[in-house]
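Think of the structure tokens as a kind of shorthand, similar to the way a musician reads notation: each symbol stands for something richer, in this case the local conformation of the backbone. In the example below we present two proteins back to back. Begin with the first one, reading the sequence and then the tokens, and try to describe in your own words what changes along the chain.
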Amino acid sequence: MKYMTSEQIRQTWLNFFKDKGHMIEPSASLIPVDDPTLLWINAGVAPLKKYFDGTETPKSRRITNIQKSIRTNDIDNVGKTARHHTFFEMMGNFSIGDYFKKEAIEFGFELLTSPKYFDIPLDKLYMTYYPTDVEAKNTWLKLGVKEDHLIPVEGNFWEIGAGPSGPDTEIFFDRGTSYDLRGPELIRDDIENERFIEIWNIVFSQYNADPKLKRSEYKELPNKNIDTGAGLERFACVLQGTKTNFETDLHYPVILKVESLSGVKYDGQMAFKVISDHIKTLVFAISDGANLSNEGRGYVLRRILRRAVKYGKSIGFDAPFLHLLVDTVVDMMSNFYTNLIETAVIVKKIILKEEEKFFSTILDGEKHLLQSIKDGKLSGEDAFKLYDTYGFPIELTIEYAEEHGITVDIKGFNEALEVQKSRSRDARKVTHSMKGQDEALLNFDVPSEFVGYDYLQTESKVIKVFDQGIVLDKTPFYANSGGQISDTGSINGLVVRDVIKLPHGQHLHLIETDAFTEGDEVLCIVNQDKRHHTMKNHTATHLLNQALKDTLGSHVKQQGSYNGDLKLTFDINHYETIKDEEILTVEKIVQQKIKEQIDVVTHVLPIDEAKKLGAAMQFGEKYGDIVRVVDIGSWSMEFCGGTHVKNTSDIKNFMITSVESIGSGTYRFEAITGQVLSQVKKIVQNLLDMIHQHIEKIKSLDENHNLNPLPELTGSYQDIINLRLYNQYISNESKVVEKQLEAKLIDQIILQADTFIPKTIEPTTYIYSDNLPQSSLKPLIDVLYDKIKVDTVVLLNISEDKASYLVKSSVNEARNVINELNKVLDGRGGGKPDFAQGGTQALDKVQMFLKGKN
């Protein structure tokens, strides 16, 4: 068996499958694209799902990859076992309707056992298979695997909800009796152990799973697929002969750096393993545009960082240290993941900022912990609050508790945690699910040409009629893709509602199909106004993208976009709040590029040449061997299949209309182009409505009150800023006028105080009023009390929906009187012995009380 570095393992894997006709697929971003079922890319197949369910047809039906992945469902096991990780690399080979079971097993056998490749002794390998999958078992036997190394396991069937599914075969490496004296029963009975390491799983995706049916009744897929996953970290552990994954070259350099920084020698401690795993997760996730926050994937990263800090404290770190490990991760991994070099500086800044925040939070958490101790115990509820509010892992709480000689209600904590997990499970969508294959769409491969870059009207021929719509031999209609909406218009006078791409790239026109048959000659007319407005917005999006990078930093990555005819939206990652000044700077850059009248040039060239030009790949898109690059004066250069204006001056103008956080360090820019001044008033109408309401209110109260003039609209984000400030100003002015009028009214009431004094004065005198302002009651009772000079004065004021009562007393009876009134009037209130007040909404009881007084 060969010793191999992780880099050699990767290259051996990719080269082997490349020689077997597989296309090498680059690792996708850890942040899923257009897949709400996933929080993270968590397996090699995850970014390829659209090929397996037939949504898209891949360039090659044989694919291999090394996919970076994140899983946090068993984070508590990280560091405890030899092989659990939150970040890991999944090596895979995939067949989409090409080779199947026999070939997949033969590939696996050759790669694992051949001296040319991994050269693993056959007697060290054990394979499981689904009990009824006789073909898989016999294939292994024919290759020379002994019967006692083949184990039937009922759980060897991959399915998650409806969609592609099938049996699988798992491959285990036997590390020998020094790890466990027990034998293959550990695999058969699925017993946690350190002896048999599962290194590879090969899934035979051959059925369309249907939750309504028994598994034996599942229908065969029209295209059978192979989906495999092999953990790089586990291969490294086997081929480098280490006790755990953490002593391999994928982790040990980080551990040595932690040794150096902490002064503590590594001897298998869990803290070193947790830190090494978690810093890799943080570096890779942040490099791909994720941020730390209180929700979604941002919350996951925050928890991971705080867990690493907790374990850092256990080996002596009492100040931020994780950011000091970033360079080690980059040095260790950047040969394969080159983007880590570009993002290293910003990753360090983000991690340091979060560490500083947490070390500050720890102090608050410690105070809460000490304040929550009762009778030498910390309740499960308080322990959970420390976990949920202050970000304290339960291990950290237990550690503090032990230092102070107290016990923690772990059972109560776990119960509270389970309630939270249940809520999360209920809210979480099914992960890793795939759509069922549509055989008719999947099998339709007649070519169709898009000519809409050059023509908006064509005479075309119908080559296919589906239930949903029609396909033409050539079409001017752009299909919804790359963030750009589809064209609309007409075919033979009938409305084209939408246009979508089929698995083989043809455009399906959603239209009433009864009027069409295959072979019909048709006239296609694209809605020109909609197309031209969409083109302006799409080109402006490219300008916006580059302006954001120039202003906020090169770490900015596109997280999504929408290019329609009425507006554009553009989502980016950023690690801190975006300031108004930065937004204005971005807007001015785009406006300047429009004024410069730059030609928008489209290059069509091989993808390798496009990359040499420095063209940026659009977020989440897959490209063929020949690509289109949209070049705007060499300043903005992006891969893009969308439609664009000929010159930036065609955009006319550009205005950012809103910027908002949409969670997890992601911000959405919304903007308009063209004649922006004619559109601005509609966009800011809500703000204008609020402003005019305040103005009308002020004028109704004081028509002579002077107001600053309303800002004029200029067609810039500055309009939004100005109107927000003016709304704040006018709101404050409204309050000022109200207070001034209220003060005048109170003065008038006080001047007329004598009119409230009853003819009969008693030791406890009741005074009644109607609809007086609430703010006037206290000044009024003070004046009346001084005027009539009795033991106790009660002022009862009745308004439309409630009654208020105030009591002032020189004999300290105020609180007693209030209590009696509360009982009689079903009210609430209290105060001091010399002054108290209360109120009630039971006006019927107030009327009865008044009748009794009369």
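Once you have a description of the first chain, move to the second and do the same.
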Amino acid sequence: MVRQRTLLICSLYMLGGLVCASQFVHSVRAGLGLLLLTIVLGILPLWLQKEVFSRSLVLVGLACLCTGFMYYIWTEQRNTSVLPEAANAAFTGRIESPVVFDGNRCKFTLRINSLEDKELLRSEKVQATLYFRDKASRNEAEKVLGYGTELAGPIELMIPSSPTNPESFDYPAYLHWQRIHRLGKIMDMRSLSYREAKLNFTVAMMSSQRWLADRVSSLFAPEAAGLLSGMLLGAVDDIDPDTYATFSSLGLTHIVAISGQHIALLSAGVLYVLRLCGVTKRRAYITLALFLPLYVIMSGSSASAVRALIMGEFVLLALIVGRLKDGWNLLGAAFLLMIGYDPYYIHNVGFQLSYLVTFGLLVFVPPIMNKCTAGSLAIRSLIAVTIAATLVSFPLTIYYFHVYSFLSPMINFLFVPFVSILIAPLSVVSIILGSVHPALGFLTSKIVDILLLPALRLLRIIEQDYSLRFAFESPSLWWMLGYFGWLIFLTAWLYDRITFNWKTKTCLVLFPALLFGMLFFSWPKKEVVVTFLDVGQGDAIVIETPGRTVLIDGGGPPLLFGEQAWERRREPFNPVKSTVIPFLHAKGISSLDLVVMTHGDSDHIGGISYLLEHMPVRQVMVNGLPARTEIEKKVNELLHYKRIPILKAKQGQVWSEEPGIVWRVLNPVRVLSPEGEDNAYSVVLWLEAYGSTFLFTGDLEQEGEMRLLHEKAVGTVDVLKVGHHGSRTSTSKPWVEALSPKLSVISAGKKNRYGHPHREVIERLETNGSIILRTDRCGAAVVRVREGALTYKTMESNAGCK
């Protein structure tokens, strides 16, 4: 059987070579070591299964392995930029992606042909952002900009910034795999000259997608329209951000990404209609084979869609010629074709999940259906598909996304048929009829709204239940090997290759229990980790102790003055959403024991409401002042709605988590004045951790510093969170001399409007010999206390980061 699946075997060897090469470009030693190990493993089947793996098959496989290795290296060497690292220059080029409009800007991929009237050695893609100064400019851009539009004008080029927080998405690497090495900023639509796109096949497909998406928007309710545009047309940017977040949390994103499921449903529908119209089977297959590539190109050609297209085309070809092909070889052929086109596909998460899930379906669905004999064929098939997809996708899901809801299999079991059987067909009918005239699609579109909108509301309610949703750190390589080893053992049992006795029962149950135990429980480390996150102009500090996790402030969206309605973005920047929660989830933190809101300024608590809506919080500490802003009022409403205990901080409060870890509240004073300034009443915390001391000051200013010094409430400190982002109104000379901090951390945004940190503060700290870490230059700072030793590291180590 193996010998008949040569393409599958070759694809596995090719994958091994590509993975080794991807490591080699970062570390020659690690890459060569992995390559040697892979070659040994590649030869091993020749000795273990001589009757299954012939010498010629192994030699061909090894040749594929070496080819994959060299091909990736060759591709990497050619993937360089001819553009300057930073420049303001005049360009000519054309748009090579859909144009995504969002408030006062739009984004697209721009292929630049020339700079300053000089042709480039080769044209190069740039990820461009175009800003609008007024509504008229945006309206003009919406009319004239699209795929293929030729542009000319000034552009500011820059290198993508590296991640500034631990566990953050590596945007430069992502762009590198798209062969994009520069970001481009265009400040004014009126500075550009443009020419309409020349009509060609790709332009026609992209225009068709946009036209159909607009038609969907006119037919369905806004929330349903965005989801259906993404689900049926691949216009994912049209999906409401909150809806997408709900789908992501519940493991339903495969529904909104064009994949094998969509291609299969579309194929079945087209064949049914063609046969209903009297078209012969052969002509129906040919028509479908010609139609599918058009649909995939129009929907954006995602990796999962391309994989499904290739396999579907092979199946249709086999049906046309009357010779059915093996599904395993089709999977291998699709892999080899896609990798041959672009070896960077191996870094695409959608590509990885698509192939792994398809592999899992081929392995597990037939034996599970044989073992499960109760119920109808449709129910058994749905159960088998759900189990198989869950088994194989789980490790990659927690590795990349860190969060997994154990309600996901059940929700998929119920929601996928609901979408596939009811929503998708009715929506397609509505779009087809509505394309002729909107009135024709009105009835079916309203039926879809009536069915879909309550389902989305129900999903949102379920998503708020955190009881079966957990965050996991990315599992180790050994854990992944153990998990897939268990899957191999499970496969052997399902195919009756091993005897089902008490020993195998024990292994099937205890080994996964051990693996999941390793995910949920870890040996407690006697250490404290304090992470000062880079959230721009704001504070967000995560303190991890052996028994608790504390968050001090959460940053907030930048304040916008005089913003008009047309300038508002669909998903405004929120540091809690983009930085704090992803960091917590990547650390395996599913809930917070304590959230400290030092005071009511937006740059400290502006993102807390989002945190309360999306993560369990056991207790919140506040400064006790009444709410004065809309942000504070919203936070208070959420605290009462969710019945989260509120602790009012008062000077003198002390609590101990365990021997060696003690917290003290130094501010605010016991008597509060409702008219007092928020900064003066900032919650100030003192932490003693295994012999090291931390002082978290919020935005406390000089008056409060002098009072604490007068009361002798503070002494020397190892780590100081510099007050008020390094403003001259804080961190006075007596304060610095009394504290004498070894390490001073300043949280400030790059090029912030306030000029923080001020030079006077920097000079005071430097004169006192303190090491200064600035989030605007160093990125996040991680301070670790272990066995009395204090160490630190920052995301950046450039000359500007002292």
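Compare your description with these statements about the second chain. The mean pLDDT is 89.
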